[in-house]
Amino acid sequence: MTTHDETIIHLTASELAAKLTAGEISSVEATTAHLNRIRATDADIHAFLHVADQNALAAAADVDARRAAGAELGPLAGVPLAIKDVLATRDMPSTSGSKILEGWVPPYDATAVANARKADLIPLGKTNMDEFAMGSSTEHSAYGPTHNPWDLDRIPGGSGGGSAAAVAAFQAPLALGSDTGGSIRFPASVTGTVGVKPTYGGVSRYGAIALASSLDQIGPVTRTVRDAALLHDAIGGHDAHDSTSLDYAWPSFAAAAVAGSANGLKGLKVGVVKELGGDGFQQGVRNRFSDVLELLTREGAEIVDVSCPHFEYGIAAYYLILPAEASSNLAKFDGVRFGLRVLPDGTPTVENMMAATREAGFGAEVKRRLILGTYALSAGYYDAYYGSAQKVRTLIQRDYAAAFEQVDVLISPTAPTTAFKLGEKLNDPLAMYLNDVATIPVNLAGIPAMSLPMGLADEDGLPIGLQVCAPAFADDRLYAFGGAIEPLLEATWGGPILGKAPILREAVA
Ligand code: GLN
Q: Whose CA is nearest to atom 4 of ligand 1?
């Protein structure tokens, strides 16, 4: 890496975009710097499953040529982007972290990817993830875990640990993730990055390899609130290919972020969810959250305590709805249509070929959930399990509706703990599931939420996320609030939080 490369990789996406527009840096230079960074660091971090050197440089050269010819380009044109492997890409393998899709190159792009290309973002490659996005640590990837750039012995969160680690390690200024129960927000929380789960239907799911269709959303992973807003603006909007896509006139999220930082927090009603933050939350997490409440009060926001009594059933309902939908969505991976095909010993029949393929192609966590989901949907149990879980979902939606009658946004810690050690929860699925206590209710209700850094835990010096939630369609409120609080928080630490990471410190300086 040259010093020039070092300078480039430490720019935020909006800073980089400004330099590209001004002609101070070319997209080929920016792309080369990030590819060099990946080459230098990814043996340790393993954020990427595939790096698209040639195609990335070709796309960058094309943007540079069009810019030189005076073409009108979008605000992020020429900025590199990492893409979670859950998204279909026509020129790169798309495995969703599974052996069953090893080497599969889809015939088309997911809409979020197509929109990113239309905005002239430069795809750098595909990022690691828990198999089919089932997990909170990226340890369930069939291709080995990703390591947290803050401490290589720790998890980067999951399922989108690759995207968060790539952004935290300055391998990419921007990344795409998917969030079914927290897979954008939890990795953001434990890597000191910003992650947004948009309103359900705000970003097309077309070409996103489905986990649980009623919960899945695609969203941005970045180092700043403004960058998240710019990426959200680029990938979102109505898509006729996704029947749940919202046909809605979304405001500019980038403008909301800028307005937020100008307007501040005065007069804002901020709800604190009583059920999220007590027992089971690490002391350091609680301490930083109290600091945030003090800061908000000082800045003229009004703190309102709210209760969401049905959140306590969120994880239980989620672990019926998700496996049920996943068991249906993953039935198509059968050795006939895509990827892996295993022929069993003896006389092969279609049935025993499918069984052998699924046995060899799926990992333990995926099998666990498919068995659970198939059971929950079976005749006679449907009402008792899936039906009851759907009723809990309605109760959680009502909790949010009641809360948003009193407040503009709701806040809580994103997760109960900082990054745990690799291996620590791998053999204890229930302990792993409990991480998502604060993020899962958001997906069950379909509302938007952001995780942004709120400081470092006293115990271990690791980053902690602040989760901000808004009513459906009010994603702009997240960006306004995030745009207002981010500089105030950074002022208390004296700069971007990634500057505090032991491994990243010299890189950030
Ligand atoms: N950790 C949660 C799970 O294991 C969330 C996953 C996700 O959002 N894709 O299901």
A: 135
CATH of the domain at 147: 3.90.1300.10
> Is the distance from the beta carbon of residue 181 to the nearest atom of ligand 1 less than 6 Å?
yes
By residue range, what is the domain housing residue 136?
Answer: 3-267+449-505
**Residue 192, in any domain of the structure:** yes
Q: What is the pLDDT of residues 281-326, one digit of tens each?
A: 999 999 999 999 999 999 999 999 999 999 999 999 999 999 999 9
Asked if residue 182 has its Cβ within 6 Å of ligand 1, the reply is: yes
159 in contact with ligand 1, CB cutoff 6 A: yes
Query: What are the residue numbers of the active site?
Result: 84, 159, 183
What are the residues whose beta carbons fall under 8 Å from the beta carbon of 7, sequence distance 6 or more? none
Supply the pTM of this predicted model: 0.98
Q: Flag whether 492 is in a domain.
A: yes
Number of domains in the chain: 1
DSSP-assigned letters across all residues of 173-233:
SEEEEEESSSTTHHHHHHHT-EEEEPPTTSS--TTB--S-TTT-EEEEEESSHHHHHHHHH
438 found inside a domain: no
Q: Write the secondary structure of 275-339 as one string of H (helix), E (strand) and C (coil).
A: CCCCCCCCHHHHHHHHHHHHHHHHCCCEEEEECCHHHHHHHHHHHHHHHHHHHHHHHHCCCCCCC
315-332 tens-digit pLDDT: 999 999 999 999 999 999
In a domain, 296, yes or no: no
- Edge-to-edge order in the sheet of strand 80-84: 48-51, 122-127, 80-84, 174-179, 217-222, 194-197, 449-456, 463-469, 409-413, 269-273, 302-306
Determine the atom of ligand 1 nearest the C-alpha atom of 215: 8
